């Protein structure tokens, strides 16, 4: 991900649905960048419990409990609450209020054409039984982003239509009140577009696919995960030539091993034969143990005092509301529906 | 409208979209009953500015300005703020918050099947360009009603699907949290189902049709309106037999003239011929002047001190929010998304 485009004038909004603790895929795909970006500009981190409810209405205990879990992951990984504002979405009433006004600016057919929504509907098998809250969530996202006057939103390439929808709402609102109240944003898309694959070799690491390694994983979990890791199914004997492409161990080494020369040498050796899976797995395991040990230790320490962590979220939410209240007030003033 | 079914245990929610001052049709169709019902049970009167915006996004000045106008109509007609709680919808943030949660309980196809929405889409010529806020407004209404734990909602027969939608949301929510948090409501439908026709004989009196007589109409406006009133187009000479059915003057006399025997006599005379339009119009005009003169006087008096009226709305809104905040808190507690 390029951070060069982001300047101190930018405001970032990003976050996670609180449906499970974060894993190594989140660390590589977003957390690492947030940790860098919090030194560049203002950054709001949304614990999206309300959005998670849009398709977890029967499962709200999970959604609530993971607010703390995700917060622990953030803090343990290196998010600094003095630099990044972490807040709980359901405690910011300005967001649904903006959402309800923005709904008037987006037609039903426009929502139905949203490619991300189309894909998700297929993926989740909703067909015509899509909850309205799910269908309208691009508008809720427009509320989240514009409430903070965010200029930068880190997203995957598949989420670009959501950014376009937000900017459409921004432009339509500004045009309808003939004032520049809301601010357009731009997507910050990872440069290589790569996601960390699951330990089973599947393209995406995901808790629900059972192929993930959480940030709070124990030393034993890490050992087990690396042992189970997908390599080259045709590499049966150490002497055999092995394939590096699609071999999860090498994909991970490319990402986590800072000694790139050594990794290139291992790849060459593996390709020509004579290098066993055990050797490369041992190397990767050591790297992952080193990476995750301090995160796990901080996470355990933080988890021992949940009230302290909730206090951070409370303060973050208060700070977030200062901004959202100011935006909502400006929106309502521009619409002329301010009475007192 | 039967008020017998309403008891002191009931809670009524009703109100008006703030798109124009109220007229005689509102007086007959709803205001008179509210004035009676405010002595029977708790009654909340919603000045629906936010809902009016769902299809007036480019016209928000009208929506805002009519908040005061409708409030003046309420108070002038006899709504007593000590008995009825008058409040401004856009100042109750709990309503969009409940709305955003309820959206998860209603599918898109369910909204598309709503007969009232279907009719309105035809009427307004929206086709597929329906604003999402319009499509989802049955859910917003469910939020309005259930936020007050209203048990009675006065509606026209065509609005019954909206009540059914509200009760579906109530049942679905209660089932999803396995607690009886929200309360079902029932429709209070006018007994005769009759609407006051426009002065032009069209079925519905409506400001946009230009066939209405506002509650604040001047004496001259009333004279002019009665003069223009549709009678029997074939009743050309006084001596001719005239038709009473569809004759707006008689329809109005049936509603506003308390001397029913005299009205029956006039009808018989008109039917056999020899009774001119001038005579029946003069009688109706006198009745309407007598009815509207004190309302107009009170309205002018109140309009001279808009700050006093806005103070009533402010107090009403504060009182309304006590109830909506309690309901939202119960809803969030039941969903388990309460953190502090």
UniProtKB/TrEMBL annotation, chains A, B:
One of its GO terms (cellular component) is cytosol. Coiled coil: none annotated. GO terms for molecular function: ATP binding; tryptophan-tRNA ligase activity. Keywords: Aminoacyl-tRNA synthetase, ATP-binding, Ligase, Nucleotide-binding, Protein biosynthesis. GO terms for biological process: tryptophanyl-tRNA aminoacylation. Its EC number is 6.1.1.2. The gene is trpS2_1. It is an enzyme of class 6 (ligase). Belongs to the class-I aminoacyl-tRNA synthetase family. It comes from the Bacteria. The lineage of its organism: Bacteria, Pseudomonadati, Pseudomonadota, Betaproteobacteria, Neisseriales. This is Tryptophan--tRNA ligase. It catalyses: tRNA(Trp) + L-tryptophan + ATP = L-tryptophyl-tRNA(Trp) + AMP + diphosphate + H(+).
